[in-house]
Amino acid sequence: MVNQTVEKVRWPQGTVDKARKLIGDRGNHFLKRMEGETGANISACFQCFRCTNACPVSHYMDIKPHQVIRYIQLGWREELLQSATIWVCLSCEMCTTYCPNEVQVAETINHLRNMAAHSSVAPREKQLALFHQTFLEALHHFGRVNEFWLMGALNLKPGVLKEKIRTGALAEEMALGLLLLRKGKLKLMPRRCRAMAEIRKLYRQQRGEMA
Where is each 4Fe-4S ferredoxin-type domain found (predicted)? Predict the structure, then answer.
């Protein structure tokens, strides 16, 4: 059974009058855009908190899953794109599974993450954002993910290798990589998917939506 206890909701700083003002055209515009692009019935959310209760990483989030949906209804786009939540989310879909109104919470958060990645907003979780970017680059190049290429490309991102050396994470990754190589679980050379044309078409369509 899911625990029904959640911490008190903390909304952005401001008065009630300011919040009411934001519910107007700004909120409706962003809400309709998100519903149109994700297919999620975000308007159906009645803040039962079940998504937050079911989330295994909600305690790491600055904006809880149920608050994400409410922020969209209010039109608080910038606050969402600047949050740590969109990068911390595991996309495990526990939130979606427990939603009584079948709101696609996980898909909504994933869409916000993609919006942030295509915007000029500085990510709150830089390392996670870089991993997300590199993961998408791998899909764009090969249509699939090769772990060796993925981690190599990630380590070439500005500041990543230096940070891993400082924390000792690089040595751990190398040891794990050698173990996987010995067991035949790690392929050194990536192979392209046969459906690359279709995959790149999807990328172009997605970028068009984000414009």
Answer: 36-66
Burial status of residue 94 (CB atoms within 10 A of its CB: 0-12, 13-18, 19 or more) = buried
Both structure tokens of 193: 């998917």
Nearest to 81 by CA among 120, 45, 55: 120
Report how far apart the first and last C-alpha atoms of the chain are (Å, whole number): 42
Instruction: Say which residues have a Cβ less than 8 Å from residue 150's Cβ, sequence separation at least 6.
Output: 134, 135, 138
Write down the pTM of the prediction.
Answer: 0.70
**What's the CA gap between 168 and 171, in Å, rounded?**
6
Total count of residues recorded for the chain: 211
Q: What angle do CA 79, 110, 127 make, to 5 degrees?
A: 75
Instruction: Give the C-alpha distances (Å, rounded to integers) separating 103 from 51, 97, 118, 176, 185.
Output: 10, 9, 24, 39, 37
- Residues 63-93: pLDDT tens digits? 999 999 999 999 999 999 999 999 999 999 9
- Coil, strand or helix at 173: helix
pLDDT one-digit tens code per residue, 42-67? 999 999 999 999 999 999 999 999 99
